[in-house]
Design goal:
67% helix, homodimer, DNA-binding, mainly alpha, three-stranded antiparallel sheet, 7 helices, 2 domains
Chain lengths: 193, 193
DNA sequence: ATGCACATGTAAGCTGTTACATGATTTC
DNA sequence: GAAATCATGTAACAGCTTACATGTGCAT
């Protein structure tokens, strides 16, 4: 019963890229996966503890001058085994959830200006995301050229960034078009009325 | 504490389009909102009951020959008021969640063929969705022309379908490109090895 | 006979969010 | 002095999914 805990395997995956603290993991998620994955502290810390108890991770407490002590977690061989098992399993279908689209469907009787505001606000956020991904992709290209060699996973990271960039671009174009359509309708009805 | 119940307002919204049974609501969601919203019976039935108790909906039991009895719910004025309040409120940011992209990021050491399989499977599902949306958009256009008039919300429905169609198209193109890239890398490493 | 569509519900229990709690250090 | 960053956690509770439970009518 109840769905499978994805945080477990997400943490194993992130830690398979290198040892990290709970704080690092959150940051890593926000900076790299925000487009398609999020985790929060209230999930991360208890899960790390649990994974350590199960022997999938091991903990080392680091003290660095001028910083609070950190609990850094390393993935164990057992952890890597569970990760690889999960990687081969079929994945859940992607989930896209938009409260804005839902509201839009029911908004025929609310002031259009309100809907336009919502769309503009969402579009603004996307604009920043789009720039971030574009810059990220350029960085990846430049790093690759500068280092005269490929890191083993650079093509995977780039593919993921490309999808994010294009989805966001598609969204922005749709937002602009839809905002314009709604504005035209507003002025039309004002002309008539 | 704990997040806001979105099912309540989703049901109010759907019932604002016309009276429906719990079964109808589920079907309506699956057929119209699946791209960005889902509901399931275990959420729908208790929520309908609760909304009725609060006076936001009213129930009528319908018996039709050859069919099991249905509980059809109508939205009340109080219900409409709560719906309109919610429509004006700022919405949560959209959520996109993809276990496939997450796995992809960690898949540098698993057989590429396994990743390709996953991508091809996902792409196949999208292909069907894409065709469905394309046909749906054509239908909406034709209906509009045939009826020589616009229903008040047709432009909203069409906008939503357009976004879905384009997002799916963008995804399919990315899947194809990514699958090809991975296949090339597989044959490259075979040439070298 | 088998499966699909119609039709309504409940129980269990993990998941995930929000809020709370605490404190050092650096930067403006 | 205020704000941001670094850093780790817990409590409470609503939300959401999965599985279970039950039954009719129609089509192949």
């Amino acid at each position: 019963m109840a769905r499978k805990n994805k945080t477990r395997t997400a943490l194993l995956g992130i830690l398979s890229l290198g040892p990290k603290s709970g704080y690092d993991i959150k940051k890593f998620c926000d900076e790299n996966f925000a487009f398609f994955w999020t985790e929060n502290y209230a999930q991360i810390y208890p899960t790390l503890k649990q994974l350590e108890e199960e022997g999938l991770l091991c903990k080392e407490t680091e003290t660095r001058p001028g910083n609070p002590p950190r609990n850094v977690y390393y993935i164990t061989d057992t952890g890597r085994a569970e990760l690889n098992e999960w990687l081969l399993l079929p994945n859940d279908p992607m989930v896209f959830r938009s409260e804005l689209l839902l509201k839009m469907r029911f908004s025929q009787d609310v002031p259009i200006s309100n809907l336009i505001e919502k769309l503009e606000k969402a579009r603004y956020v996307y604009q920043n995301d789009y720039q971030a991904f574009t810059e990220r992709l350029i960085d990846l290209h430049l790093t690759e050229i500068a280092e005269h060699r490929e890191k083993p996973d650079v093509h995977l990271v780039m593919a993921i960034c490309k999808l994010a960039e294009r989805m966001i671009k598609t969204s922005i174009e749709w937002y602009d078009e839809t905002i314009e359509m709604l504005k035209e309708r507003t002025s039309d009805s004002q002309d008539k009325g």
